[in-house]
Every structure is written in C-alpha cells, then in structure tokens.
Amino acid sequence: MDFRNLIPWNRDSNLPSAHQRDDHPMFALHREMNRLFDDFFRGFELPARLGSSFGPSFGWPNIELSETDKEIKVVAELPGLEQKDVDVSLNKDVLTIRGEKKGSSAGAVYSERWQGTFQRSVQLSPDADPDKVTADFRNGVLTVTVAKRPDAQSHVRRIPVNG
C-alpha cells in the first residue's frame, strides 16, 4: 500500500473521506470521552504557568486581571451569553462569576460547541472594597471593577530606583 493513500487530503476528491461518517460507535465514544475530560478539567483553577502547558486555558471563562493604585479590574470573555445568564458575586475578597451557557444542538450530527454551567473564582487583594463594585456587560465581555479602600491606597509607597 502506498503511504500517500493513508493521508485523507491526498485521496481522490470523488471518494468520500472516512472521517465524514459520524454514525460509527467509535466516533461517538471519542466525542463523549472528550466531553468527559473537558468537564472534569474545567473545575480546576490552575495557575497561569501550568495552564500554558496544557493548552490555552483550563478555566472558563478566560479572564484578564489588572490592578492599579485605586482599583482592581477583572475582564471575562463570555461569547454567546447574555446579561441574564451571568451572576457575579464578591465574598471575602473572592470574586465569583457563574452562569449557564445554553445551546441548541437539536438535529446536529456533530457539535464542538460547549454548553452547560460554569463558575470561575478569582482571589482579589484584601484591599478590595466590597461596597464599591461595578459590573458592565457588553458584546459578550464582562468587566468587573472593584475600588480599593482609601486607607489601602494611602499605604502605597513608591520607592525610587537608582541606576
């Protein structure tokens, strides 16, 4: 057998490719195992340095955390969700974003779209003021801004660096 015949893109274009048949039990098992592992690892909050060795990210939604002298900002990407599908809470300096992504796969032969409940928690600085929190949701992006306590802002001391 010629090795080139084993590669699907080198076959005669008139022949159907073997991977198009999704009714085989092995394809169904493969798909379910992928979902099982995705669901299992989704619950782990791994540090960023570990996440890169296992792919783009284990936590969902993907977030960006930034901090200044006056505020802490958490930006989460939530594509395909609406404001009513998202719940944000702050409890003892832990910001939690949770919700549910609903989808309709009715009639789909194959789907890689994720749907289900999610939760992502982020430990914030103890300087965060729980009484001064705002959340904004636009175009599938959630931005949560937490002001720092005024007394925490005054404790910041800049140290000059000599060269």
Commentary on this structure:
With 163 residues, the chain is an alpha+beta fold. The protein has two domains: 20-58, no CATH class; 60-104 and 111-163, Immunoglobulin-like. It is 17% helix and 33% strand. The chain has three helices and seven strands. It has helices at residues 25-42, 48-51, 150-154; strands at residues 63-67, 71-77, 86-91, 94-101, 116-123, 128-138, 141-148. A four-stranded antiparallel sheet has the order 1-2-7-6. A three-stranded antiparallel sheet has the order 3-4-5, with no helix packed on it. A hairpin with a 2-residue loop joins strand 6 and strand 7 (141-148). The longest helix is centred in the first third of the chain and has 18 residues, at 25-42. The chain is elongated, with a radius of gyration of 23 Å. Residues 15-20 and 46-58 have low confidence and may be disordered. Belongs to the small heat shock protein (HSP20) family. Residues 54-163 form the SHSP domain.
Topology:
Layout (H helix, E strand, L loop, with lengths): L24 H18 L5 H4 L11 E5 L3 E7 L8 E6 L2 E8 L14 E8 L4 E11 L2 E8 L1 H5 L9
Antiparallel strand pairs: 1-2, 2-7, 3-4, 4-5, 6-7
Strand order of the largest sheet: 1-2-7-6
The name of the CATH architecture of the largest domain is Sandwich
Strand content: 25-35%
The shape, in one word, is elongated
Got a strand count?
7
Instruction: Please write the string of helix (H) and strand (E) elements.
Output: HHEEEEEEEH
Content-based structural category: alpha+beta
Mean pLDDT: 76
Largest sheet: 4 strands, antiparallel
CATH first level of the largest domain: Mainly Beta
* Total tally of structural domains: 2
CATH-assigned fold name of the largest domain: Immunoglobulin-like
Nearest-angstrom radius of gyration?
23 Å
Provide the helix percentage.
10-25%
Number of helices: 3
Q: Alpha-carbon distance between the termini?
A: 69 Å
| Low-confidence residue ranges | 15-20, 46-58
Pfam families: HSP20
Domain SHSP: 54-163
Protein name: HSP20 family protein
Family: Belongs to the small heat shock protein (HSP20) family.
